[in-house]
Each structure stands twice: as C-alpha cells, then as structure tokens.
Specification:
This protein is an alpha/beta fold. It has a single domain, classed as Rossmann fold, CATH 3.40.50. An eight-stranded mixed beta sheet has the order 1-2-4-3-5-6-7-8, sandwiched between helices. It is globular. It starts with 11 loop residues before the first strand and ends with a helix.
C-alpha cells in the first residue's frame, strides 16, 4: 500500500494543557526520532510545502500541529514566543515522544530556539529556516513589512507570500507561483484559516522577540542546520549569519536569488540536504 502523502494526511486532534491541538502526521512511524514542524507567522497546517513535508517523511515520522488558537486548535492565541514554546512542549509531551527533532520556519524557528533553551533534553537536532535570534536585526519590523505586502497583494490581486517569501527576479517570481500552486494541492479537509485576532497576537509576539535582549545561544549544543535565502526581507538574512556565529554546532546554507521562502524555492536541493543532516 502506498503511504499517504501530505495532501491526504488525515486531520487529528490531541488534548494537552486544556487545549485541543489540531495536527497531522505521516511518514515512518516506527523507530527513529520524529520531526516536529513549527509554523510561520499566520500559518496553519496547509501552509507547509507538500514537497518539503513529503520529502522528509520518506525517512522520518513527521508531525505538524497548529498552536493554540490557530487553525483548528482551540484556546486563546499566544502573544509571545515564550508561550508558544511552552504550548509546543506540552504538545510534544502529549505525543509521548521523549526526544524529537525540530524544524522551525520563520516564527517557528524562534519557537524552536526557545524550546531548546528551556528543554534541551527533548531536542536532538534542529533545522532553523528563515529565522533569527531574539533581538535580531529587523525582526521587530516584521509586522510593517507584512502589512505593506498585504496591501501590495490586494492592489495586484496576488497572494502576499509572492512578495514576502520570494524575490522579484524572474526565477523568484516563477518559484513563488509554483509554491502557491502546491499549497492548493490539498482539496479536501483543509485547515481553518488564521483569525485576525490570532494574527495580531503573533505580530505582538514577533515585535517583542525583536526587542528582547540576546539569549545565550551557546547553551544550545545540539547540531543545527540554518537555512535562508540571501535576500530575506521579512527576517533579514544577516540574522541567519548571526545564528551561525552564535550557535556552536551549526551549519549554514544560504541560497542565492532567494528570499524568506528559500527552503520552498529550492526544495529539490534542500530536502536531501535536510535528510542528510538529520541522518548524521
């Protein structure tokens, strides 16, 4: 029997800490360390690129969940990265897994850092994509950039992610269109869209994260793969270089002519590199 793909993975729920978390899982579910995906700003389950999820699921048990108050998960949305990390820890505890790998994209990468600092014994390896450290350059202005590109999207009739995630070069524009088409491949039992209330709570969390004093990232001893495009407008690419400098066991992968969504634009190159990193 063919294993289910991300676009057919059933919607599930799991109770933890008074919250009913919505999640999906697929891939190898016997042996090995599961990979927990941590979502970006305004993302629900349907915002992950099927090529990336399916690629990692060829060798790993992959779990993707909505934080509380997001998508189909219940509860009031968190308005701090620290609270999102605590919610993620509760979710991971409820899965019964003592050790996980984390794949955090954008805001999810910030949550992953906080989890590793709070509960290092739970984390084996991390992939941090399009993200930055607390107090990182430009992170407190993410809301301003997102609002601008929301308006650009409304004015041009395009999805704002075309501007937020990809460069405006011919290759970047083409990659954005292909990515947005892949996000529509799931046609049934899709997740609920994020609410305005939840989106604004996440913007408050990002603004506070960008204004926080730097954390002592040298305490994170796990292997970390840091990935970004060289022209990230949302979380400036300099933050990826800063993470690589401060995380003692890190590897940096920067894609040329790519923006915030570099892992989606270059999924064919990124996925085997991510698998090799997780296998080492």
């Amino acid at each position: 029997m063919t294993a289910p793909r991300w676009t057919q993975a059933p919607n599930r729920t799991l109770e933890a800490g008074g919250v009913r978390f919505a999640y999906r899982e697929l891939g190898r579910q016997h042996g090995g360390t599961p990979v927990v995906f941590l979502n970006h700003l305004a993302a629900v389950l349907d915002n992950w690129d099927p090529r990336v999820v399916d690629g990692l699921a060829t060798r790993h048990h992959v779990i993707v969940f909505d934080n509380r108050g997001i998508g189909a998960s219940t509860g009031a949305p968190a308005d701090s990265i620290e609270q999102m990390a605590l919610d993620a820890i509760r979710f991971i505890q409820a899965t019964g897994f003592a050790l996980v790998d984390l794949f955090g994209f954008s805001m999810g990468g910030m949550v992953a850092q906080e989890i590793a600092l709070r509960e290092p014994q739970r984390v084996r390896r991390m992939i941090l994509a399009g993200t930055g450290p607390a107090g990182g350059a430009g992170i407190s202005r993410v809301g301003r950039i997102a609002h601008l590109d929301l308006l650009r999207g409304l004015h041009t009739g395009q999805d704002p992610k075309q501007f937020l995630f990809f460069t405006r070069t011919p290759s970047g524009i083409a990659a954005g269109k292909a990515f947005l088409a892949r996000l529509q491949e799931r046609t049934q039992h899709r997740d609920r869209a994020i609410t305005v209330r939840a989106y604004l709570a996440q913007l408050r969390a990002l603004k506070a994260w960008g204004r926080q004093p730097p954390a002592e990232l040298s305490r994170i001893r796990q292997p970390v793969l840091i990935v970004n495009g060289d022209q990230d407008r949302m979380v400036p690419s300099s933050n990826s270089h800063e993470l690589a400098r401060r995380l003692p066991n890190s590897t940096l992968l920067i894609y040329p002519d790519a923006g915030h969504g570099g892992v989606f634009q270059h999924h064919a190159d990124f996925t085997p590199k991510a698998l090799a990193f997780l296998a080492n």
